[in-house]
Each structure stands twice: as structure tokens, then as C-alpha cells.
Amino acid sequence: MPQLKDTYPLYLNNKAAQPNTDLEVTDKFTGEVAFRTALATPDVIEEAIAGAVRATEPMAKMASYERQDVLQHCVTRFRERYDELAYSLCVEAGKPIKDAEGEVDRLIDTFKIAAEESTRNYGEVQPLDISARAKGYMGMWKRVPIGPCSFISPFNFPLNLAAHKIAPAIAVGCPFVMKPASKTPLGAIIMGEVLAETDLPEGAFSILPASRDGADLFTVDERLKLLSFTGSPGVGWDLKAKAGKKPVILELGGNAAVIVDKDADLDHALERIIFGAFYQSGQSCIGVQRIIVHEDIYDRFKDMLVAKTKTLVAGDPKDRDTFIGPMISDKEAGRLKGWIDDAVSAGATLLCGGGLSNGNMLEATLLEGVDPKADANWEEAFGPLANLTKFSDFNEAMEQVNHSKFGLQAGIFTRDLHQVLDAWDTLDVGGVVVNDVSSYRVDNMPYGGVKDSGLGREGIRFAMEDMTEIRNLVIRRL
């Protein structure tokens, strides 16, 4: 396996800097310190923001092909460093190696899409002569970079969720400062190392591991023209309140549901729901948390789910047979274990799992009969937990999906096209996935949620729109 270095720098205005080695990052399976990185202090963050401001004009003046060349260079280098990137995820995030490799694949896809879109930043010619007073006038508009952007990315997809901010920013010509999650900073640092090999203008990017207090500095500064945050709802909405006049994009949490109708292919639904609920230990904002099954097939499907869940291999994420790895920390595992125990104490049935070992190894857990307002159901579990309920009428199932403060994505297993269209009209979510789970995402599609799940949409083209402003031109023909 690849070897990690003992220390890693931050990237300040395109260059590696090692002012300290203050941030310890642990191997999430062993609990031992795996490496140390530099931690950005307030003066470093200030220098990065000033550099991004200076880079605004040079970045905006880059030709489309030049930005495309940068993104294509990243694709090439990520392929060359594939094993290193996957192994770093395995260590810093505790992500099973197969899932880690899948995330590197998505990182490459995301930069490929951005490279293609970087030359498609279109505008429009618009007739203005809609009345006599506008005769002789014509208009046209184009998109221009919004300016320096601030990015804060989470621990659970350290590569791909950072890529969904970095790649579109380069595609449109926006300089940026990024704060990766302090528990998993290495993926973003390696991306910074690759970007440093390019000819981006000085100040075009800074990758700055920082304390949570440092997030305020990435938020309140008026020189930063957009904030894009992915993380927990509590933190996200708080940052939005502090962001002032700048636009804010929030990709937050969820307690996603799937509906399994009586005509579903149960073997297919089983495989996908097991994946959606428990891959990377359930630490996904669109992971399956609520499983809503038609009463005619409920008992059969429940037995199938329990039997399959009990076969999942838990252990060292570096082992290719491992499906359930550690949660990100003892604290998070203990929180969810407490929610499970509270639900059972209140009358829920523990179908399987529920055990906690080694501090952060929580078993894949299935519950039924959970009080709808219990934390295990109402809040975002963000761990290996799913709850089963039944329904008799499809409208009732959709009501259960909508009975949530979140609205990110939902999955439906059915062969009935009418019910598919009803769900698309009715479900109060950002996306409906048919014959697959809520956790399915392709990196060019519009992705985001409603209610407490956030604001705005990611997906390269949609992020590029957020990172640009429309600039209009009106011409009077004389």
C-alpha cells in the first residue's frame, strides 16, 4: 500500500507552506496519529483572502482553453495518484478501500465534467423590441465570474465534495480559499499539490486546514463574494446568518427515505438499500435512514433485510472484505448508539445490530416501530442505522417521506409509472430516484435539497451558474 508522509503543508496563494505541524490527523480505525498538517492561523487566512482578491482579475481573464488545461491536468494527475488518494481516504476517513476507490473515480469524473463545461459558459442574444419604445434596441448577456469564493467542505467525502466546489470555480475563473474538514484534510491538500503544478495566477487558490473557529473568517469577510458550505445543518444555517450580503450555497443533512412498493423487484431493492443505508458506515447525508415498505411484502422484505445486514463484514477499512468501517469518531458513534438505545427504551424493536466496540465501530443496525419524533428517526443519523415502517396506500407512503424537516433526496422502488410521476410532483425533496436509493448521485446532475437540507444546487453546470453573475449589454442601433 502507499505510504503517507509524516507531515503535510497547507497551500497559501498556490504555494506549499509549513508554518507549523499543529493539526494531528488520526487513522480512524487504529486511533493512532497518522500524520500532521499545518494549521492555518488568522493571519494566514487573511493573507489567503487578500491573495484571492489580487487574483480576481487575472483569473477572470484566463481563456476558456487555459482553464480547461488546468482541469485536464488535474484529471491526469489524479489518475496517476489513484492509489495514494484512495489510501489516504482509507486512513483519514476510515472509508473501506472499495468505497475509497469509488470516491477517487468520482473525483476524476467531477474534474472531467468541469473541463468539458469550462468552454460552455454561454450567454444569449435577446430581442428587446417588445414595444414601440424599444424599437432599434437589442440586448445580450453573458456570465462573468462572481469573484473570490469561500469553500468549506465536510469529512465524509473529502475528495469529491471538495471537488464539487474547486472544479467549477476553476471552470468559470473564480479564485477561492478552502477550509477542508480538520478530521480529513489530506485529500484537499493533495488536490492543492496538483493545482500547484499548473499555471494558475498567484492567489488563485488556497487550501487551509483550520479550526472550527476559523470558519467565521471564511464567512464574514466582505471581500469574499460567495460562500459554499457542505456540512451539518446547525453549522450551515449559523454560517448563513453571519455571511452578510454574499450569496450562500448550503448542502446540509437529511434523514432520507425510500419507498418499496408491492410490485418492486425485492432482490434488487435489497442490494441497493443495504448499500444506501450502510456504505461508509452510513455517513452520507443522502444515506437511507427510513425504509417504508408496502404491507403486502413487509414481513418478507424485513426478513431479507435483517438476514443480509447480519452478513456485512465489519473491520479494518484497508481490508477489501470490509463493508462496515469505523465512524469518524468515538463521539459520533456514542451519539448514535445513544439514539438507538433511547429508541428501544421507548418501544422500538431492535431487529439487528446496535452494538458498539473499539469506541467508534458501530454495528449495522435495523430498527422498527421507532417513534416518528425520536432522534433516531427525526434527526439525521449519519451512521449505520435504518428504520423500517409499513404502508398500505402509496399516498400514505409519500406522506411519511414528507413528514420530515429535511428534503434532500428520496428513492422509490416501483414499476408503476403513474406513481413515479405522482412522487415527482408530491415529494418535497431536491431529487427523486426511481428503482434505486436516495444515496444515488451522478456528478453532473443538479444536487441539493429543500427545507433544512439546504439552499441551492451543486453539479458542475449548476455550481458554475452560482459562481457567475449575469452582465447585460444593451445596444441602440442608430
Verbal overview:
The chain has 478 residues and is an alpha/beta fold. It folds into two domains: 7-252 and 454-473, 3-Layer(aba) Sandwich (Aldehyde Dehydrogenase, Chain A, domain 1); 257-442, Aldehyde Dehydrogenase, Chain A, domain 2 (3-Layer(aba) Sandwich), CATH 3.40.309.10. It is 37% helix and 21% strand. It is built from 16 helices and 25 strands. The strands form seven sheets. The protein has a seven-stranded mixed β-sheet with strand order 15-18-19-14-13-21-22, sandwiched between helices. A hairpin with a 3-residue loop joins β16 (356-357) and β17. α3 (64-80) packs antiparallel against α5 (97-117) and α5 packs parallel to α6. The longest helix is centred in the N-terminal third of the chain and has 21 residues, at 97-117. The radius of gyration is 23 Å and the shape is globular.
